[in-house]
Amino acid sequence: MTTSEPQVTAERELCGLVNGLADQIGGHVRVRAATLGLTAPQATALRELTGPMTMRDLADRMSCEPSNATYVIDKLEKRRLIERHPHPTDRRAKQLVLTPEGTALREQLLELLAEESPLAALTQQEQSTLHDLLHRAVTRR
């Protein structure tokens, strides 16, 4: 079965749009993070740290390898924004926990990221639909 030219063109254009949106979001995060003295990966880690979690969980949320997340967390730990605590059920693991300073900085970051977000032109319903479609595309295997 061969794919039709219009189908190939539509998929190519869709991939371009998704890549363009990812670039816009990445640039938005970099600019906003810099105003707080953070790198984009540090900002991503703070954004994704919604509660105590392991390094592996955070790396999954950041879409990176645990070793890359470790490097980022080490920098945030030096700034006293994150602490490593013993995991309550796994003696081999540590939980990452925001300090009060980290929590305050995360709240600032979230406010900055919401300002002029590349997704702000979409309604809540449109964002929800986009989320569902992208989630379905990403998790389809």
Q: What is the CATH superfamily classification?
A: Winged helix-like DNA-binding domain superfamily/Winged helix DNA-binding domain
Biggest beta sheet summary? 2 strands, antiparallel
The tally of structural domains comes to 1
N-to-C SSE series?
Answer: HHHHEEHH
Q: Provide the helix percentage.
A: 55-70%
Task: Give me the secondary-structure topology.
Blueprint: H1 5-35, H2 40-48, H3 55-62, H4 66-78, E1 82-86, E2 94-98, H5 100-114, H6 124-139
Antiparallel strand pairs: 1-2
Description:
With 141 residues, this protein is mostly helical. The protein has a single domain (5-139), classed as Winged helix-like DNA-binding domain superfamily/Winged helix DNA-binding domain (Arc Repressor Mutant, subunit A, Orthogonal Bundle), CATH 1.10.10.10. It is built from six helices and two strands. It has helices at 5-35, 40-48, 55-62, 66-78, 100-114, 124-139; strands at 82-86, 94-98. A two-stranded antiparallel ribbon has the order 1-2. The two termini are 20 Å apart.
Main attributes of the structure:
globular, 7% strand, MarR family transcriptional regulator, 65% helix, 141 residues, two-stranded antiparallel sheet, Arc Repressor Mutant, subunit A, WH_DNA-bd_sf, WH-like_DNA-bd_sf, MarR/SlyA-like, single chain, mainly alpha
